[in-house]
Amino acid sequence: xxNEGRITREFVAHxxxxxxxxxxxxxxxxxxxxxxxxxxxxxxxxxxxDACNVRWLIxxxxxxxxxxxxxxxxxxxxxxxxxxxIRGYWVVNPNYPEQTARALDGFEAEQTTVGxxxxxxxxxxxxxxxxxxxxxxxxxxxxxxxxxADARGLPVLSHTWAxxxxxxxAEVAAIAERFPNVRFLMGHxxxxxxxxxxxxxxxxxxxxxxxxxxxxxxxxLEIMIEHAGSEKILFGTDHPWFDPRYGIGCILxxxxxxxxxxxxxxRNAQRLFGLPLE
Amino acid sequence: MDWFDCNCWYGxxxxxxxxxxxxxxxxxxxxQRAGIVRALVRNAAIWEESPEVGNRLTSDDCAGDERLVPxxxxxxxxxxxxxxxxxxxxxxxxxxxxxxxxxxxxxxYVLNTTxxxxxxxxxxxxxxxLFLARRELPGAMEVYELADRLLADFPRLQxxxxxHGSWGEDRLFRPLMxxxxxxxxxxxxxxxxxxxxxxxxxxxxxxxxxxxxxxxTPMGGPMLTLLHAEISDEDRALIAGRNLRxxxxxxxx
Lengths: 278, 253
Description:
Chain A is an alpha/beta fold. Chain A is 41% helix and 18% strand. An eight-stranded parallel β-sheet of chain A has the order 1-2-3-4-5-6-7-8, with helices on both faces. Chain B has helices spanning 24-34, 45-48, 51-62, 85-95, 113-116, 119-126, 140-153, 170-179, 195-203, 220-227, 233-249, and strands at residues 4-10, 38-43, 68-70, 72-73, 99-102, 129-133, 159-162, 184-186, 208-209. Helices cover 43% and strands 14% of the residues of chain B. Chain A binds chain B through residues 1-4, 11-12, 15, 33-39, 44, 48, 51-52, 194, 213, 215-220, 222-223, 239-254, and chain B through 1, 17-19, 33-35, 166-168, 170-171, 189, 191-195, 197-198, 214-225, 227-228, 230.
């Protein structure tokens, strides 16, 4: 295995590095379309987190992508059960705009401190999935949630993917211009439109590239670092879809410094979400 | 760990990957960096032009580098580019080639006994591995249906599906593992948390071969996943390289 730098050597030797924790900013919970997930139950999730020193996992409910009322409530229960390891994104489904106002009320109600180690509330921000919901990111039905997030400077994680018209860098740029206080995480880093997506992150202080699945395309990380800098990149895995070791291994393979790896694996997310690492 | 990569390539395809490996030297350099001691290698010309061209390039480029084990492409024998079946096997023997790839969609043939004119019988009887890229056909269903039809006719064929989709294909390849004792998949895109452990428990470590899918995929992902999978060190060593090494050694040419 690659033998460059202490972080790489220790991940190879131990599967974790004590002084390089990981914050997984893009994970899920529960079954989805009957895909086989051996480790989607919380106790198994925590097992994997401990093995890799994943200090925090930020999840949205798979169920919430379908039924936001039930799914967001389930995530609240998971966070309440594991307040010192897990936080949630509140899913907004634009196909049910009449529910959005109630959803924002529900989000507001969850803004209480949970756990002993953090003052960060149970839900850190919103999750959008334009492709899954077949509603372009620039559609007006997202606006109430974006206005809410903009007024409070909240993070929004959105699925982003190549191909203009739905969730590409172009839609992200339009949203970023309109809502300058939303801290926008481009889930999958605009998969496929690597350079243009990285430039959107470079040109907007409040836009970040999130790595789920993107790390498995050799060369993508180097492009992101060249155009946006490692300070704008966040680690994520879509867990339980993907083993964090796979994503970490891809980062170890990429041509970058250990400082870049620390930025990506925990420093940027720690700064963005305010989650403690001790 | 004695890493033996079953799935990597180099060359100049018409649509290059994001970070290409145009030459075998680039591939060799990255293998060395990753600590992979052997690799089953093929040139992109095998699928982009023809095995008639790509097989020769692969063997020429691998000559003299004991880390690189050449793999060839197959074609149906009726049009003669690679000779008849016995001539093709003789060429494999002369070149030290012990593993093959099929590209039936790109090369426009039906991968079955009618088309292959006795070659599949020979591969089965001689223990020669046949690799099939998951993306060779447009949909996941089609690839596994093809594998099922092929293995129904040749149940002892050592068929390996490579670089399967990472978005949940266990329900597609597990039935083949259950039914056919020599069907395997590579680990290059097996990113599922707990997947390697579950396959080892259900079907044994012989059904997994370490692969990287280089240059499309970084080598470190599948390596770190296998290194710290919760399986025995013996099973880990089998998947990392011993399975492939044994299979190649057992080929009867």
